[in-house]
Design goal:
- By secondary structure, this protein is of the alpha/beta class.
- It folds into 3 domains: 14-78, Arc Repressor Mutant, subunit A (Orthogonal Bundle), CATH 1.10.10; 92-136; 154-194 and 203-344, Nucleotidyltransferase, domain 5, CATH 3.30.420.10.
- It is built from 13 helices and 5 strands.
- A 5-stranded mixed beta sheet has the order 3-2-1-4-5, with helices on both faces.
- Strand 2 and strand 3 form a beta hairpin.
- It is globular, with a radius of gyration of 27 Å.
Length: 360
């Protein structure tokens, strides 16, 4: 027989589970609060306190404490209780009014509130405004960019491509293909000041252009390896040359699924002729304004950050050599990107986004 008092079970409905999962991923909430949300989610999965403590690196009494607090008080119980000290200088009503003003209004002379402008407007101290904004994850000075696809076959294309990622076909290779055009060979007008103790690397704000190259890349989603070629331009002729390069490097007994965007070069008549003459190729076009569906864009960001953006190049030849060197080292230790989003989860996220914007 098991010894000790029985552990009360934790039961969550779908809404509460989603809210707790969001808390674990939040970057604005404290790490302690996110950890308590993880405790409750694991408890709802049927794990006992000892198992949860082992997984999260906590003590068993700590896990038991937050389990009991959640069972007795719900989500509010995961927050710290009020501690003794001086009485609060700002009421809940004042906090709510300040948050509403931040979210629902703009200053007369600007596009967004700052801590100082809102403090001057409301009579609340700068420190209080800053503390409340941090507590509630408000960042009026920042923006995130988005673009909703207008593709009439958006749903079908998303299901098709995500299906390739989550359940690749047998005896086939899935390649995410695209080109990064106009990669510039930039040389600074003065030597770079090396990083030192107490100060960062220094570069001049101006530069000299020594030409450009176009980086064609095909990412194998199974291995993470990348096949690349640098070309001076990005017309259909260069794209056909890269397709021939792919064809020569993929075993002939494998079918090839190409994930590409809707750039006109990819749909050129001669490209379609080339593909039609090779039955083992199947092309999957991403929806318009949906380059995030193409995994090679992740790799383009990696090579840009690590090898191109802060580089200094005296010629295009030097730039191409740097790219090829990076690719060789990357492929030696490559790992596939772990794609976890399902088509339904993508549609749910877009549905939430559509509810937040005004469609005119």
């Amino acid at each position: 027989m098991p010894l000790g008092r029985p552990i009360p079970p934790v039961t969550l409905d779908a809404r509460m589970r989603e809210q707790l999962a969001t808390m674990t991923r939040s970057r604005s909430l404290s790490q302690a609060l996110a950890q308590r949300a993880k405790i409750i989610l694991l408890a709802a999965d049927g794990l006992n306190n000892s198992t949860i403590a082992g997984q999260l690196g906590l003590s068993r009494p700590t896990v038991g404490k937050w389990r009991r607090r959640f069972l007795s008080q719900g989500l509010v119980g995961l927050y710290e209780e009020a501690r003794p000290g001086a009485p609060r200088a700002i009421s809940d009503e004042k906090v709510a009014a300040l948050l509403r003003q931040t979210l629902e209004s703009k200053p007369k002379t600007g596009t967004h509130w700052t801590c100082r402008s809102l403090a001057a407007e409301t009579g609340v101290s700068f420190a209080t405004v800053h503390r409340l904004w941090r507590a509630f994850g408000l960042q009026p000075h920042r923006q995130k960019h988005f673009k909703l696809s207008t593709d009439p076959f958006f749903v079908e294309k998303v299901r098709d491509i995500v299906g390739l990622y989550l359940d690749p076909p047998d005896k086939a290779m899935v390649l995410c293909v695209d080109e990064k055009s106009q990669v510039q060979a930039l040389d600074r007008t003065q030597p770079v000041l090396p990083m030192g103790l107490g100060y960062v690397e220094g570069v001049t704000h101006d530069y000299v252009r020594h030409g450009t190259t176009t980086l064609f890349a095909a990412l194998d989603i199974a291995s993470g390896k990348v096949l690349t070629r640098c070309k001076p331009r990005h017309r259909h002729q260069e794209f056909l040359g890269f397709l021939n390069h792919i064809d020569a490097n993929v075993p002939p007994d494998l079918d090839i699924h190409l994930v590409v965007d809707n750039y006109a070069t990819h749909k050129h008549f001669k490209v379609r002729q080339w593909l039609a003459a090779r039955p083992r190729y199947q092309v999957h076009f991403t929806p318009t304004y949906s380059s995030w569906l193409n995994q090679v864009e992740i790799w383009f960001n990696i090579i840009t950050q690590k090898a191109i953006r802060r580089g200094t190049f005296r010629s295009v030849k030097e730039l191409v050599a740097r790219i090829e060197n990076f690719v060789a080292h990357y492929n030696a230790k490559s790992k596939p990107f772990m794609w976890t989003a399902t088509a339904d989860s993508i549609f749910e996220k877009l549905q939430r986004l559509c509810k937040c914007i005004s469609v005119t």
